[in-house]
Amino acid sequence: LAPALAAGNCVVLKPAEQTPQIAAWATAVLHEAGIPRDVLQLLPGRGETTGATLIGLPGLQGVLFTGSTTVARHIQGELAERVDDTGRPLTLIAETGGLNTMLVDSSALPEQVVLDVMTSAFDSAGQRCSALRLLCLQDDIADRVLTMLAGAMAELSIGDPALLSTDIGPVIDAAAQKGLLEHIEKMQQEAKLIYQVTLSAQTNTGSFVAPTAFEINNISQLKREVFGPILHVVRYKLENLNQVLDAINSTGYGLTL
Length: 257
Fold this sequence. Notes:
Layout: H1 2-6, E1 11-13, H2 20-32, E2 40-42, H3 47-55, E3 62-66, H4 69-80, E4 91-95, E5 100-104, H5 110-122, E6 132-138, H6 139-153, H7 174-190, E7 192-196, E8 212-215, E9 230-236, H8 241-249
Parallel strand pairs: 1-2, 3-4, 5-6, 6-9, 8-9
Antiparallel strand pairs: 7-8
């Protein structure tokens, strides 16, 4: 919302239904800083009701959306049929899914690779658009790197994020947890498990998902973004690098790639 305000627009902020409190706090801070209340208004609610109503409001100039590619395409279709008061198409700025990839060849320092993979794939329980989803390892070094990766994952502490001793907290809600657990179950049938962190009793309450790494046979096994602490690894031969790049590009994802 900040760029929209800076550009002179009035803004209705509709947060995701999972995050109304942080949105209310941010709105209150901006009001205290001098943004007029009739310029910035908060309207929490569900996307399919409140969000859909906002998209149809008369006088709407544009939509800034962060979320799934499916919903972004729906919004795009709704806005495409309308124009603003000057006859121009309505603006849509959408930040959607990502399938972020790290390519590692035999010149890489394995210790640095593992550190970067751990940070990117599992920090914030993988709930970032920039989180690493796909690790492509040159086969000459794959065994060594994966052994080190499994050892590093074994050191992770999963639990209450309020504790400094915790490395990874829960995912945002039970619905997200359910989808991630279903993906893990699917991968257990289709891929090779590299390592899965063992959850302690303190995670029995809450939407926790064990950080997990799988080795897959090919990139085409990934059909969509998996928004959580799940890493997919594929090996490649150096002479096949161009085919690997083609497979990455064919996924249709590019956000922060």
